[in-house]
């Protein structure tokens, strides 16, 4: 844990330069617009420790797989989001000495991420070895309004003496990934072009042949007067620069504007991408920095309008939740079903930028509440588009008849992960994809999605489950052997309760959906039956048999669902009994010792109770929660949020609040000493869930929105907006009451504290808290 | 399976050249002398598919580990036996055209491995593109008598026309491993030297700084007259050559002798190695090819005298068993406790040439019967010398109090393997090391070994078991969770019967050994107690408690020991029910499917019954054998031999013989289509076990040798010699009787068919078979 940032409701503020913290800050201050994202690398050269990172959505490289011992079924490659060409760079020389914060005396330094407006800024006063002092103010953003553009304004003031300043804006495609399995270079340079103040670079990924075009257009002003002298240009493969030299008198100020275009072959063909980049850039420069910034911040206003959570009385909590909401919106726009959300978003290389079940289990609940239905629909379509590959993936593992097995980690639908106990055995992900469809439908009522896409996915997943179970002659039950549950601290177990529960539910939901679609749109249903050669009667009969005879391990003596068979043979301890020096276990214990222990990495049985809470009475939930929470070490960033939801459900608000703080400020306060690698983007959605489903007790039951708000002891108020079946509601909770305002024009039915309210369009209800 | 070699009792014969078979033949025709070994690569250049392989005992490189996802406790490197400098090379040019069997017309070709004498020879008639024909006869050996030397005689006859011949003997250190994780070069070139007909090369391994010196000394004769013209020398880093050109008249014959020295820093210091190489080489050349060959073959006579198994009536079986015995003796000499036996010996790169539990479980039973006790003692000392590192290894995984956990794969005592389910969980290997001590003692009576070394290892291993078990409150038993048994087709299981059995036995044997040593040599016992801080009373009390309360899974309904908990939840099938197209499973099924299936890779419960057979009555053995043999797919080369022993024990001789054929000719007939990668050296010892312990029914019971010979239906006789407590016995078995001849001077007690015989020195008994 590291607390060096100032607490502020809307900003992240670093008030002095400490090279030790720089890599962490590079992650925390990352900016992005869903199409492009980047770490908060400095514009000027920096010779200290840094992780250079610029990422373009959908641009990846299939890096050669690295395994110790090959297993049948392993994938050939691991897709990696690429560190893309550097477009922010501006090299600065003062009297021909490089400005480099690792080598100057940094007299003052302030870095600010303005989350309200999506602006990264930096101001510092540095003294060169010569004694000359320069003040720099750098502001940049990646436009939310025109996502292929961005801009930097880099201002230099000669503080205590006149000086010769040479500044060299450049584009550099000769970049590498730190995480390259064989230290390969992933880019081929296609072309470069520089003329005066305008430069272009096109790079293409090896193997995948994805293109990224970068453009820069430079304008500079000395004390407000435009510098018209033409720069010196230099170029080489993958690199262009424009070098300007001028004398800067004492107290004078130089303003450099670097307009940026970043276009990719996702939206532009190789033939037109250079011309398109020139056009985009021309328009940006014509618009000008201020107007671009205005349009950008206006977009952020719109985003906050939908998605903000206001917390009064706890500034740390306020900053934490906004930080999470901010980064989620920077990572995913929701307008392109080819894109998804990597666990680190655009803030680092770890996890390869690929898609995990995080999206369905954690991100979708966030976007369902805060964004138009189309955003979640696109996340579902992403999986629909991968259905064919999921079927191929299943075939590789021996499944037949159109069974689909979605990959654990993927960029384009193909499996990229290569640990057998996860790749082949963490099969509950297939259930998460089914559940996400259900979750989307209950929030939006979009039955058309079910008819056109959802049912096809559900049948394919149910076919998987129906082949994945086997009949145990010993138990006279269906069993699911050899799986890894969400608790990855135990592998290759038999009858993981969560997996069995989710499998059985999927079969049931698919059967119900078949009924629905058959009734609502028999023509489409029949056409689907033909398309996928669905033997309705036989297949659903088997599914029903599985549902009826599925085995669910249960621990009679404690009245709890048993995480997996054999769990009680482990030495039983609670996390509280662990020597704190032994934690986190994943850094202190060998893997086998972790596997043998009773300690749980993240919600597993409790994940199932979270998903299907309505099935269980409060006592059952409490018994399971007490049993498993005491054994959970929360060493996944995805863990605490589910526990918050259940703790709040059980009115254990102190515990809920304690766990909430950990998840909401996980990155800002660097709980796990790893933020330098990037942010935990997908778990940020869990933080949102913690407030909305935890504190506010939001549920959907039988098509209606349910709220059971509570408030942490030290909070005065919290308020948020939520989208439900197309209506926007604003919910405000304080110590005495709950106000629900219907901001849409149509009436909405909401159940608050168990009472059913019909709230008319554009009106509100006030409910006293009990 | 591929049968292209001629059946012959003493030779392996390939009668025509087929480039498709060449890599396989390179493995099968490998030669070695325990210090150096090499694949049967051609002396002349060959541009076809080949795996170049020359290996020097104990010379390894710690290759950077390759894993997909790092786990705590993984080792940093994977030790690899290195492809060492090529010393056999003789490049041949006919009228300046390279002789290359991939490019000539090969009119006739015959390759012979004479196993009786340890000679590899090759004769071919090739037609150059010019139409000129050359006949080549190449003979080579690596001397068993003077192990740092070897020699090649390479003879060329101009068959149908005169020709200019240029021949270029060389030494080449610029060699690589095919199996290099990051395509690194593993050697640094230290020095090279060439003058006339003598050349030297010294290469040093990177990181480990192990040196190998190679020397060559060339003599050549044209029709018997020595060629005295000095050759042209060429040299560069890691390479020296001597190039000779002469006119060879039609029908004339050129004989090239290449004397070879191969010395390593295991036996020579960097300062003297070059001088030592020169001396060794000088002596070799003075001795001359014929005399060197005589001394070499004399050694082989001695080896066969002890270790041969004669089979009459089944030439395939005869060739198979000799092939196995031959290669085992080529791989391990037994005079250096720093060396061990890699699964592929000196015949390929796979498994890195490192030590596995194969040595204790399979090779030691072979050497105990066929070689002086010192040979096995050195294999035990190898592990004793690694005890400190095994304790460190255990510490890394969280064990304390001097518990030792021997590595799964090692070169120098450090763990090299990096799959958690094996590295951390295949813990039964620790028991195999304890059992090997017991096995050695019962064969040799060498109690001094127990006192000086054995007990210390046993205590350290027992300490491991005592920490590795945990108490199950559910079962009220000690359990061993999270292990992989010998059946690697199931991982991370609980209570593997074999592992629990071996653990419990180790504790018991250690307690007995403590009693023995305490009585026999109390002073040494006390000094050991001090050395290892052994709390005799407390520690053995816990061990006794574990022995008394260990959990052993049992399947009541079938009356068999259960391989592991949950095994009966799997879909039960027999291997015979499998579609043959699905086999071998490890090539046809994905890993998870294999893990979920009931199919067993190699003896697991049956391995335990094999080790502790005397505990079980015939009916119990039969029930377990029938149950598990029917589910075993024998996809490890180490599997069939144990089944042969038990099948013979149960008088299922047809099955025993069928399984025997598979193991004895596994490589010659390439059952698994993988012999091109190298030979299954360690499983060859299993083949020996199959005859001696299977067909001959050899056991040791209460200090006495037991024989219960049977003979396969198609065999007339089989005969072998066996060492027991220092005495050599010759056993001959035919259809009517068993003859046991005591070839030593002292009387030996032997139990044959249940009757106790005392056989006086140098006399024999004849026993009619019942």
Question: In short, what is this structure?
Answer:
Chain A is α+β, with helices and mostly antiparallel strands and 770 residues long.
Note down, in words, how this protein is organized.
Two copies of one chain form a homodimer. With 770 residues, chain A is an alpha+beta fold. In chain A, 33% of the residues lie in helices and 25% in strands. The first copy, chain A, is built from 20 helices and 33 strands. In chain A, the strands form eight sheets. In chain A, strands 1, 9, 10, 11, 12, 14, 15, 16, 17 and 20 form a ten-stranded antiparallel β-sheet that branches. A five-stranded antiparallel β-sheet of chain A has the order 8-7-13-19-18, with no helix packed on it. A five-stranded antiparallel β-sheet of chain A has the order 21-28-29-30-33. In chain A, a hairpin with a 5-residue loop joins strand 15 (198-205) and strand 16 (211-222). The longest helix of chain A is centred in the middle third of the chain and has 24 residues, at 497-520. Chain A is globular and about 85 Å long. Chain A starts with 10 loop residues before the first strand and ends with a strand. The model of chain A has no long low-confidence stretch (mean pLDDT 96). The interface between A and B is large, with 54 and 53 residues.
């Amino acid at each position: 844990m590291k607390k060096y940032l100032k607490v502020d409701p809307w900003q992240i503020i670093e008030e002095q330069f400490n090279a030790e913290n720089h890599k962490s800050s590079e992650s925390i201050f990352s900016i992005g617009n869903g199409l492009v994202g980047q770490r908060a690398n400095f514009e000027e050269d920096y010779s200290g420790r840094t992780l250079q990172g610029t990422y373009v959505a959908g641009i990846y490289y299939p890096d050669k797989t690295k395994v110790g011992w090959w297993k049948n079924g392993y994938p050939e490659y691991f897709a990696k989001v690429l560190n893309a060409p550097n477009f922010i760079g501006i090299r600065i020389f003062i009297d021909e000495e490089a400005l480099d914060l690792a080598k100057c005396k940094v007299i003052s330094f302030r870095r600010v991420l303005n989350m309200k407006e999506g602006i990264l800024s930096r101001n510092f006063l540095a003294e060169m070895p010569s004694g000359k002092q320069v003040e720099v103010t750098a502001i940049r953003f990646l436009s939310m309004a025109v996502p292929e553009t961005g801009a930097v304004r880099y201002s230099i003031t000669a503080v205590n003496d006149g000086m010769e300043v040479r500044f060299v804006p450049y584009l550099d495609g000769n970049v590498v990934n730190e995480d390259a399995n064989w230290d390969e270079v992933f880019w081929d340079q296609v072309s470069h072009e520089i003329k005066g103040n305008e430069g272009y670079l096109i790079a293409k990924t090896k193997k995948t042949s994805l293109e990224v075009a970068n453009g820069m257009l430079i304008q500079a002003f000395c004390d407000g007067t435009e510098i018209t002298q033409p720069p010196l240009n230099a170029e080489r493969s993958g690199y262009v620069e424009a070098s300007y030299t001028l004398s800067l008198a004492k107290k004078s100020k130089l303003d450099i504007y670097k307009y940026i275009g970043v276009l990719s072959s996702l939206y532009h063909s190789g033939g037109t991408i250079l011309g398109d980049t020139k056009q985009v850039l021309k328009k940006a420069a014509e618009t000008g920095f201020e107007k671009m910034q205005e349009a950008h911040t206006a977009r952020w206003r719109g985003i906050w309008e939908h998605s903000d959570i206001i917390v009064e009385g706890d500034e740390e909590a306020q900053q934490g939740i906004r930080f999470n909401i901010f980064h989620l919106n920077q990572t995913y726009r929701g307008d392109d079903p080819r894109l998804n959300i990597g666990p680190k978003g655009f803030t680092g290389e770890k996890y390869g930028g690929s898609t995990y079940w995080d999206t369905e289990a954690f991100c979708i609940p966030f976007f369902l509440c805060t964004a138009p239905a189309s955003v979640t629909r696109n996340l579902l379509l992403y999986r629909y588009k991968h259905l064919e590959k999921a079927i191929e993936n299943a075939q590789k593992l021996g499944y037949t008849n159109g069974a689909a097995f979605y990959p654990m980690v993927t960029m384009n639908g193909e499996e990229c992960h290569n640990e057998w106990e996860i790749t082949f055995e963490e099969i509950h992900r297939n259930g998460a994809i089914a559940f996400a469809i259900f979750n989307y439908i209950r929030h939006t009522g979009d039955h058309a999605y079910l008819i056109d896409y959802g049912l096809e996915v559900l049948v394919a997943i149910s076919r998987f489950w129906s082949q994945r179970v086997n009949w145990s002659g010993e138990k006279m039950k269906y069993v699911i052997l050899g799986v890894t549950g969400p608790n990855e601290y135990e592998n290759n177990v038999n009858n993981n309760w969560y997996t069995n529960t989710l499998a059985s539910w999927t079969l049931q939901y698919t059967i119900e959906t078949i009924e629905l679609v058959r009734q609502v749109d028999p023509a489409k249903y029949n056409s689907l039956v033909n398309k996928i050669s669905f033997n309705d009667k036989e297949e659903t009969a088997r599914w029903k048999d599985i549902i009826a005879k599925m085995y669910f391990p249960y621990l009679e003596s404690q009245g709890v669902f048993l995480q997996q068979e054999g769990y009680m043979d482990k030495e039983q301890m609670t996390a509280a009994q662990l020597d704190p020096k032994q934690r986190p276990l994943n850094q202190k214990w060998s893997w086998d010792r972790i596997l043998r222990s009773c300690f749980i990495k993240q919600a597993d049985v409790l994940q199932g109770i979270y998903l299907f809470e309505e099935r269980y009475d409060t006592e059952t939930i409490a018994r399971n929660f007490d049993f498993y929470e005491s054994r959970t070490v929360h060493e996944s960033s995805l863990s605490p949020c589910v526990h918050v939801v259940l703790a709040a459900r059980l009115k254990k608000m102190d515990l809920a609040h304690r766990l909430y703080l950990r998840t909401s400020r996980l990155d800002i306060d660097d709980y796990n000493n790893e933020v330098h690698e990037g942010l935990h983007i997908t778990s940020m959605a869990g933080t949102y869930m913690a407030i909305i489903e935890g504190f506010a007790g939001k549920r959907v039951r039988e098509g209606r929105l349910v709220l059971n708000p509570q408030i942490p002891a030290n909070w005065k108020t919290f308020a948020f907006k939520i989208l439900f079946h197309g209506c926007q509601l604003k919910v405000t909770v304080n110590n005495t009451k709950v106000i629900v305002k219907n901001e849409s024009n149509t009436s909405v039915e909401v159940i608050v504290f168990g009472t059913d309210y019909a709230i008319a369009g554009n009106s509100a209800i006030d409910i006293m808290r009990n």
